User: Fold these one by one.
Assistant:
Number 1:
Amino acid sequence: MWSFLGRFFRGIWWLVDALRRVVVTFVFVLVLALVLAFVLYPGPSVPDGAALVLRPAGTLVERVRVNDPLGIIRSGGAPVAQTSLPDLLEAVRAAREDKRIKALVIETDLLAPGGLSKLAELREAVLDFKSGGKPVYARGERFLQGQYFLASIADEVHLAPDGFVLLPGLARNVSYFKGALDALGVKVHVFRVGEYKSFSEPFTRTDMSDEDRESSRVLLDELWQGMRERVAGTRKLAPGALDRYVEDYAGLLQATGGDAARAARDAGLVDALSQRDEWRELLKARVGEGGDGKDYRRIDADDYLAAVRAARPHENARVAVLVAQGAIVDGAADDDSVGGDSLAAQIRAAREDEAVKAVVLRIDSPGGSAWASEVIRRELELTRRAGKPVVASMSSVAASGGYWVAAGADEIWARPETLTGSIGVFAMFPELTEPLARLGVTTDRVATGPLAGTLDPRRPLEPALAKAMQLGVEHSYRRFVEIVASARRKDLAEVDAVARGRVWTGAAALRLGLVDKLGGVEDAVTAAAKRARLEHYETVWPTGEINLRNLLLRRLMSVVGPVGITSESPLARLVGGLQAQAADLLRWNDPQHLYGHCLCDAP
């Protein structure tokens, strides 16, 4: 029996040891493959007479989230949800003067809904490309509104025979939770300054306030008018043609027997209907065949940009473009937020870098912590005092805390479609005494002062604390207005008249003196370089730290190609939006519980 047990356990140990060696060998081979892929994989080359292909996947962003590649592999291929707008702009600008690039091809099927200003900025870069005499071709299996807005800039727009062009216009839908909170017995105490500061209204109302409805109507009308005029202009449509398509879509479908693709073609929105193989053959005829004869001569934007950057000479002087993307939080940041301390450290590093001669802060944020916003603004102010120009460039949203940050710059640029302003401050405090009482949970206390332990959702809000919080909000609002007045060289009353929490488009903000000029990030970089008196310079985009493991894995994945690119259903977008809102609330960590946050999503 002892001999049998000995053989049994020796066999178990042999299996465990063999498995260990297999795992170690596998990991070693994997690491070796990653290193070889990173070091030995040749850079892309640009074929002569090629078409540059833009096929943005997911949402256009200022800075792509650094996903964990191992997580992607474990999940079997998570959706690739983001495309860098700066990368696309750089590729299109470079291609305009590149004699190797013959045409531009845009395919929008993977593009997700996102900020109108980003699409408009990319659209203008494509328009500049066209001005160089090179053609632009676009196709979609179907076109949602944002996808068509981008594609409509092309010289020739194709649609799948079974596709459609959907142009419903712009809308703003807000969920209100007061009824649910009342049913649960939850009280939400709100302290704010500004009748247009609507961020807290979903927790205290069941519908839009008159002020929020008025402001939203003005914003949407202005944005829609600009979008409609651009599409009609590039498609050479009569002023009322696009309006009829939007307002009488059902009637147009009825006239074509329900054929949505033919209705779009008859309305002049697309030039032709083509299958995928027909599209490919058309591009072969227009651009030329590739080396294998199976496809047209082409290069994707990522490969083209890598080739261009590798051949570009480095300059000693630099303009650093830092990105503030997401809600502003106190302390460090994650991939979906702007950390006050994290961004301040990046600004400080740029200020102390002798090669960096100017700083551009690209803002795509609805705001957040008032404390963190001031930490960032102060670092920008110190950078200006050190003699380095600072220019703020507003993307889709730069409101409330986002505008607070921008006030630290020498000069502010915005897109006409940017949502900005929302100069206001609020605080919220939930009271959970009633729902806890229903569960039989009570709270008692011992304290050394009248306000000790009172900021606790298990207890009713003390009137003295409520008064203190309102006074704090009013003081922070005055501080906000003073900062803006000083930065914009205006009287306090003049700033207060356009503040009160109201949101403005970039075009309106220019008229009101809240921004200096209209333009995109490249315009802001040029302005910063001019202020620094630079003729030759390099634009750099400092990013957060990426560990070696992720760097190697991402390079390997770039070799094998993207995985798991999917489109979301409306239900998935709804659930994802609610999850994102909940995650944002959990990030709220202002030490004084004061927030400059805007309830404004980029349409």
Number 2:
Amino acid sequence: MSVMRLESYAAGAWVAPSGDLKPLRSAVTGDVVAELGSQKLDFAGMADHARQVGGPALRAMTFHDRAFAIKALAQYLNDRREALYELSYETGATKSDSMIDIDGGIGTLFVYSSKARRELPDDHVYVDGALEQLSRSGNFVGQHVATPLQGVAVHINAFNFPVWGMLEKLAPTLIAGVPAIVKPASATAWLAEACFRMIVESGLFPEGAVQFIAGSTGDLLDRLTGQDVVSFTGSASTASMLRANPKIIGNSVRFVAEQDSLNASVLGPDAAPGTPEFDAFIKEVHREMTAKAGQKCTAVRRIFVPDAHRDAVTDALIARLEKTVVGNPRSEGVRMGALASLAQRDDVFEKVGILATEARRVFGDPDAFSVTDADAGAGAFVPPMLFSCDDPDGAQKLHSVEAFGPVSTIMPYRDLGHALKLANRGEGSLVASVFTHDPAVARQAVLEAGAFHGRLYFANRDTGKEATGHGSPLPHMVHGGPGRAGGGEELGGVRGVMHYMQRTAIQASPDLIAGITNRYVAGASTEEKEPHPFRLTFGELEPGRTLWAGPREVTLADIEHFAEFTGDTFYAHMDEEAAAANPFFPGRVAHGYLILSFAAGMFVEAAPGPVLANYGLDNLRFMKPVSPGDTLKVRLTVKQKTRRKDEYGEVRWDVGVYNQEGEQVAAYELLTMNAM
């Protein structure tokens, strides 16, 4: 492999490194694989390019436009991942490790694209929550909305996941409509740069949407404003240093931090040896110790087990660790590769020495271990190391010092409350896991430990092979944690997008709210005219387009026929005396679903046309009983439109059913698919 000279991508051009070049070495062989320079980058120009070129271009796209671009990027990278695998071996990662990083990052793009197209509008304004009535008459209402920040997102990523770490930040940022400047960790920057080149070569995002720094961020952070965001993954010490930047403090720059943490795994008191939960626990802890050579911010560092099962857990873990082959990640049979760098190896050995002051090593000797098809001295290899602590209550370092490698410590507990208190001693983690089949154990864990952990992962015989694992952050769920873990959040579906948007409270008349949000709201003006709205295509319909239909009288015969036909003979529909005794009814009343059926019969246009399907309704409420002899009318109003495919889109209709007195008896939202 020829030595790569890593370049930055600034203001639409690749910039070659200059000055004294720093060698980046293979974690496996120690050979130089890349060189990193101190490019003469115009950081002010990069920030301006993002704000003035990339931002406006992204904001001109709708959420769905940006989501479709993310999906196309995922497909583009997926077709080229073999080249990334090859580069990933030099970071010390095995093929399975690389799949966590590369495939995991691509998968995150797919999930974000899908969720954005389902949960965000095909529009430029996101409506957050329900309409708030601020006046008695309803002429003054409130609505929370979110719009993209008009700045730049600076992404500072860690060395252990050079692809996933970059993509999981880019997905919500770009969907929000905010341009990004990406700064990878130097130790594995060649892999991040290769993936970023693919992003640029794809041509899927407008100029200025993404930029890349190979090397130092220079004075970039000094140029940030209140419209900008810093999203950081790495050590607590580096996060503290960055947070202290006067511009970040003075301008209230959003700072999202995801830091390493002393994550815990608890073997539940019910999970005795021989149970499926015990076996799953042993398998999972072993995997978390050895996957990515333990270089995961979510890896299990502290293992809490019932005192009675301590020896059984120790023996079972050692049996698995003894079979773990360490060596060249390209070689057949190797299950654990190297750490990312020699510096990282030295740091792990230093931290292991500290841990050894409070626990004894029961497996793994850093001074005597073998590697397969590699030179243990030249590469950044370490053996998996398991410690055991007799006094977890008296320990201090075990709850505060992290060896960022394949290192974990077994600690006994007396009862579940004791275990949870020990888990909380980490002062905030990204994840804690509990292996139990007892719902009471799970509930107690949430109540007593939830405040200290960003994610609680429960596994047992029921979750089986479908469970993703203790150490796998999912794009659907929040990734982050309190205290030591940084106090920030990433991912979490639309929650992650909101980190790059401003939530604004809008107070106005219903008509103005409807105009701002591009959706009908209660009290806004409507328009009723020919033809019937079901004769109009998706593109021809506009929010506020309305049809009034009816009247239709509800008779006692209708109620009895509906009851007999459906089998719903609930007493409120069939027994006058019993119904009258009910505080909610004046006597026998119509079925709610009879009212819906009559409403559909009144507004439906029967002939084939642009309406392709009725696929459900939301937010159904029955507001007032309908008695025999009442006369109903129905209002059908276009509330919102959402493009789904090139051939059709979703129309959400606001439906109100009213009696002869003009009182609303039912409300719901009808969903149809309409041809374009």
Number 3:
Amino acid sequence: MLAAVLLATSAFWAPATFAQDSKPLVIARNIDLNSLDPHRAFCDTCQIYNSSVYESLLTLDKDNKLIPLLASKWEGNADQTSFTFTLDPAAKFSDGSPVEAKDVKWSWERLKNLKGSASFLMDNVASIETPDAHTVVVKMVAPSSEFLNISAAPYTAVVNSKVASEAGAKADADASTTDNAEAWFLAHSAGSAPFVLKSYEPNSELRLARNDKYWRTAPALSEVVIRQTKDAVAQAQMLQSGTADIAMQIDPDTAKTMTGSDVKIETVPSYNFIYVALSPGAKANKVPLTPEVREAISLGLDRPSILDFTIGSEGQLISAPIPLGFPGGSGFEAQPYDVAKAKELLAKAGHADGFEMEAAFPGMNVYGVDLSLLMQKVQQDLAKINIKLDLQPIPFANWRERVNGDGIPMTAVFYAPDYYGTSQYVDYFAMTKGSPWSRRAGAERDPSVLNPKEADLYKAALAASGDEAAKLWHQAGEEMIKDRIILPLVSPNLILAYKSDVKGVRYSACCNLPLAELSH
């Protein structure tokens, strides 16, 4: 058995006991909620909500180490195909009923069968057994050294199955068509976490109240209000005027304008990044995007200049589509900038005079980076190697439809982790058959983009653990760099802006902003 067996005490993970605050804490941010149903939710605000109102079996500490939550101990077999969790017998839902193995089984089967955006987290689960009320045994389809990290993701929320079932929630194989509980979740919650849903007004605010029946250390805050505030300037104004306690999406330029001894600004590295992507199989391509052409495009990007132009010292360059700080994500060489070699490659490919290329992308500001301005810089860079970009900023919904349909020759977009684990990046970005970006790259129309080495490395990494797994993830990252389909550019820092009397603010790899640790 793996040495992954940990015993819990109530104080192992819990924040220090605080004097309870009666004043609501107000957070200003763009509320990007797609759902308050924990198994349909999939967004940044969803991570905050799910981890505050529901609980997973495990969670992460400040150093991204797994620690107990609903599970008091856990173990996995040597070949990473079976995991056993023992639930803490003290765990209770907000209605006072016990959290039992049947609730875990029901919740995880529902997550899988709803077929929502986060359902992929359960794709490798073959079966879930509950030999008694406090034991959950998960059997995998194939080895998965990532499953313990997945079980700490807020999307694996454990729901009170009795309460949710009575509200129309289903976990059966046909749940995607028979479950009708999403509307109920807009006004109710059924979790075991420190907070409960108090109210939600779309495009206005999300209000959480302290769970007075919480089974661990009670949160200090009696109420948390997340108030819809679309842009950084408005968030900064709310913070400085005292109408908000935390502003969550402040960009570097706005942060420089914020003054006052009662406002605290912290900058921390994030796991988010922005990238350019190419689609050799896009129907709008005017020339074949061969490996030589893709390499030329990569060589034509002046990445240090792009970093200076977008976020400067408030971020860092990233070479592979694996975040710095994730297993296997460090140690990649900086990607070269070489105009002469780029032109040589284009001439060799028969494009000495260059060509025109469509570049459609979401017209939005993300992590402090305006994608339109970013792509103007990319346009200027590629003009030096005689590639003329036709920039087309479009709404995100339209972008999604196009990139998943006929494809887009070149685009720019962003990625934030769904859990603390590297397999998600290979799942998403590798040129393996059926992966999201192999489809967007047009693998069905141009199978040459597929890279079988990545599939082998992925399988091997999931069967390994620790340093050996990290080494294999790094090798997969090297292969994804060689594909030159995904061209990562910058990883913006995260700016934490809050009133100086607010304590416990931190960025979490699993939960975004852990509300239970806050006080003021």
